[in-house]
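Sharing a chain and its predicted structure for anyone who wants a worked example. Both blocks are below, sequence first, tokens second.
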Amino acid sequence: LSGRDFHDLALPAAVMSMAKADGRLSHSETDLYKAVLSEMSLAGAAPMEFEWLCAHPEDLFKVLAASPNASFKTSVIELLTLMAIHDGALADEERELLVSVSQHLGVDLDMRKVEAATTDYQVVVERNVLERGALAVGQAGRKVLSALGRASAATFDRTKERRVDGAGPEQ
């Protein structure tokens, strides 16, 4: 791979490394990762080189640090911060990786701001979970009520048929 191709793989590799830093990959992290990839052109991407970068963080940091573009480096830290807090929590492993990458890239990182953003994001995540839960319960509740209504109607219809036939209700 050329240096440019390697550089193009470094950003998604860094984002994936952050997503997996706490040892798990949540659905929200997967969704964010897919959104990041959708904004990138990775034509001709080499999976082996991508995996290699993910497995060798020191080399990954060197590739990212090689960029002369300071705004790119700042954007990398912002994106990694978003990924780190995207599930509503900042694990120690994610914190350590953020600090390490920011040091390698020479980008100032205010962990107080990251912690505050984590708290704010946690509120949003919890609200979304509660809303989805309420929606699911609401949908399940409607299905249960609908099923009960059908069962009740069917029982009423059978009872009504027995009365018409002169059999009367069952005792």
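Comments welcome. The chain has seven helices and no strands.
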